[in-house]
Amino acid sequence: MRALPLLGFLLLFACAEKDLTDLQAAWKIDSVYNYYNGYGLMTYGSDPEIIYHFQPDGRLRMTLDKEFRYLFYELKQDTLTYTDNKSRIVEKFTVLSISDEQLALQKKKTPLFNEKRQDRYEIRYLSKVHED
């Protein structure tokens, strides 16, 4: 029963209209929550620390120190999709919340075993990077 208020809070954010301009900034991962069939693990920080630059032209520049790579991104309703230059899906997320300073993305993961009723996902918590 304790999960119902949290579920309601997440659904409220998931159903809110997402604005593409809210995403256009530089973000870094603060923590990642992994869930698998009732077991959860929160890890803090990101090693290596990749900066995600969501650009107005629909490109995503992922930067690690002086190295970088480009992907494309698309935000439709509450779904954020990364694609390569051949329009193949690289990653797909559900946007749980987005604000001026924070972003929460959920990624469904495939179960480890072939049994039914398995639930496995990851939630990435990102914060905006203020570049000088």
Helix coverage percent? 10-25%
Count structural domains: 1
Name the structural class: mainly beta
Strands side by side in the biggest sheet: 1-3-4-5-6-7-8-9
Distance separating the two termini = 46 Å
Describe the structure.
This protein has helices spanning 3-15, 20-23; strands at residues 26-36, 39-44, 51-54, 59-64, 67-76, 79-83, 89-98, 102-108, 120-128. By secondary structure, it is mostly beta strands. It has a single domain (3-128), classed as Lipocalin (Beta Barrel). Strands 1-3-4-5-6-7-8-9 form an eight-stranded antiparallel barrel. Strand 4 and strand 5 form a beta hairpin. The longest helix is centred in the first third of the chain and has 13 residues, at 3-15. The radius of gyration is 15 Å and the shape is globular. Mean pLDDT is 86; it is low at 1-16. This is Lipocalin-like domain-containing protein.
Give a brief outline of the structure.
It is built from two helices and nine strands.
Highlighted features:
single chain, 132 residues, Lipocalin, eight-stranded antiparallel β-barrel, 2 helices, Lipocalin-like domain-containing protein
